Amino acid sequence: MGRVGALLGPSLVGLILPLWGQGGVFLLGTACFTLAAVTVYLLGVETRGMTLEGVSEAH
């Protein structure tokens, strides 16, 4: 996903900047970070204090 974002990010900024200005670019960044945070919250597994074997079993 990081590589896809690295490919799409500059293109989206180039499209959004002329239309919505700097505020639109910051809104895009905020939306991406919010989406990532919600995804980790819903799908992430807490691994603190777990062994590697325990982590592989948790998935």
Helix content: over 70%
Q: Kindly report how far apart the N and C termini lie.
A: 19 Å
- Globular, elongated, flat, extended or rod-shaped: what is the shape? elongated
Largest sheet: none
Compute the average pLDDT: 90
Strand content: under 5%
Return the string of H and E elements: HH
* Total of domains: 1
Poorly predicted residue ranges: none
Number of E strands: 0
What's the Cα radius of gyration?
17 Å
What is the SS-derived class?
A: mainly alpha
Number of helices: 2
Features:
59 residues
Please characterize this protein's 3D structure.
The protein is mainly α and about 60 residues long. The protein has helices spanning about 1-45, 50-59. The mean pLDDT is about 90. It has one domain (about 10-59).
Helices, strands, pairings?
Layout: H1 2-43, H2 52-58
Protein name: MFS transporter, putative metabolite:H+ symporter
GO molecular function, one term: transmembrane transporter activity
Keywords: Membrane, Transmembrane, Transmembrane helix
Please outline what is shown here.
The chain is an all-alpha fold and 59 residues long. It contains two helices and no strands.
